[in-house]
């Protein structure tokens, strides 16, 4: 909220949108009290100044800072209520999102160096995401029968399994926001997921990733594309639905999986397979 209110000003050289006449008056009183304290310090030759003046200045300063904080909170709440509710992805959404990194320039593309941010991104995309060879996938007809609906417990487990404080996808929905959504309107979340199950289709928006470019280490050459690594951030809502499907597949596989399967099994690994081999040798 503080960063958003700091960026939201009425124009170049003008005061912030949340500024009020009461804050202006209080600021003037703080300035007068500070000047009075400085005069007493010079007059009495004491760095602490007059005790009464010092307490007056500190009290007004504390009151001024508190008033600024309360005014920002009140202005932000009114702004979200009257602007954010009308257009959730409008001004409020843009203010809360971090600004684009314009410092990523100067990457080698063959024998030349990129000069703009967009050219650098194009080079990195070609480096890390080569063009796929077209493949003709065989489409299967949907099996007949009643599709088992997604239930409350499945989504509850999926939401609670999410790791918090993670970056969102293109829609800007964080794990914390998803948790609040589930706690507030679970019936709507279930309705969306069950519609996906019945139609055998998921939103294309859930498949679009937000690309984040990270430098592998501070000592890497920033002009080389291989010095970077790319992270694809998908929709949290889509991840919750995928985790529900993974949970269902895991339960089916557990019933049909061989007892000799150790790798790719939760709680087991290649070490367990080696222990089983040693046991067979000892028993033989």
TrEMBL record:
InterPro entries to which the protein is assigned, alphabetical: DNA/RNA_pol_sf
Organism domain of life: Eukaryota
GO biological process: DNA biosynthetic process
Name listed for the protein in its UniProt record: Reverse transcriptase domain-containing protein
């Amino acid at each position: 909220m503080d960063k958003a209110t700091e960026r939201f000003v009425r124009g170049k050289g003008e005061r912030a949108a949340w500024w009020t006449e009461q804050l202006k008056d209080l600021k003037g009183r703080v300035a007068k009290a500070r000047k009075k304290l400085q005069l007493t310090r010079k007059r009495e030759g004491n760095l602490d100044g007059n005790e009464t003046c010092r307490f007056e200045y500190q009290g007004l300063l504390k009151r001024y800072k508190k008033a600024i904080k309360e005014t920002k909170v009140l202005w932000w709440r009114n702004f979200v209520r009257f602007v954010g509710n009308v257009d959730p992805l409008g001004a409020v959404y843009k203010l809360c999102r971090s600004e684009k990194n314009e410092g990523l320039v100067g990457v080698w593309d063959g024998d030349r160096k990129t000069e703009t941010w967009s050219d650098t991104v194009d080079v990195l995309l070609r480096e890390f995401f080569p063009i796929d060879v077209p493949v003709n996938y065989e489409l299967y007809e949907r099996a007949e029968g009643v599709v088992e609906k997604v239930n409350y417990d499945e989504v509850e487990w999926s939401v609670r399994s999410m790791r918090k404080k993670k970056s969102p996808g293109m829609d800007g929905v964080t794990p914390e926001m998803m948790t609040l959504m589930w706690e507030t309107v679970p019936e709507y979340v279930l309705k969306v997921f069950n519609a996906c199950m019945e139609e055998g289709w998921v939103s294309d928006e859930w498949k679009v990733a937000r690309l984040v470019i990270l430098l592998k280490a501070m000592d890497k050459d920033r002009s080389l594309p291989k010095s970077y690594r790319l992270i694809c951030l998908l929709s949290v809502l889509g991840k919750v639905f995928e985790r529900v499907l993974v949970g269902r597949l895991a339960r089916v596989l557990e019933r049909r999986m061989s007892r000799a399967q150790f790798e790719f099994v939760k709680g087991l690994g290649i070490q367990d397979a080696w222990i089983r081999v040693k046991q067979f040798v000892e028993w033989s």
